[in-house]
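Revision sheet: C-alpha cells.
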Amino acid sequence: MLRRHERPLPKNVRCQRARMDLSEQDRLALEQLEEELWREETRFDRERMMEIIAPDFVEFGRSGRIYRREDSLAISRQPIGAVLPLPDFAARLLHPDIALVTYNSAVTHNGVVQRARRSSIWSRIPGGWILRFHQGTPYDT
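Predicted:
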C-alpha cells in the first residue's frame, strides 16, 4: 500500500528491479571469493589477490584503519583462524554489474574471538568479479 505522498513506480523501473535478481551461480562465486580472503593459502597469494582486489580498492578495517590495495597486498603471511563458511552470508545486486555482500566474521586471534559485521562491494568485469570496497564493524555478542 502506498502512502499518501508516494507514487507508483513507472513500469520500466518495476521491470528493471525484477531483472536484478542475483543468480545462484553469481552468489556462489561471490561467496567463494569472499572466503578466499579468509583462507591463508589464497589470502597471502599475492598474484591471486591482485586478480580479485581492484586497483582502486579501499577498506575501512574492523580496527578503524583505512587500507588501500597495496596495504592489503603487503600484509605478511599469518594464521587467519576465521570461521568458514562465512556466517550469515548474503549477496544482492545494486546494479546488474555491482553486488553488495554482507556477512558476520568470527576470527580467533591470540585466543580471543573478534567479531565484525562485514560488507563488500564487488564489480563484475569481463572474466568475473573484482573487490572494490570492504568494511568491517566490530560487534559483541
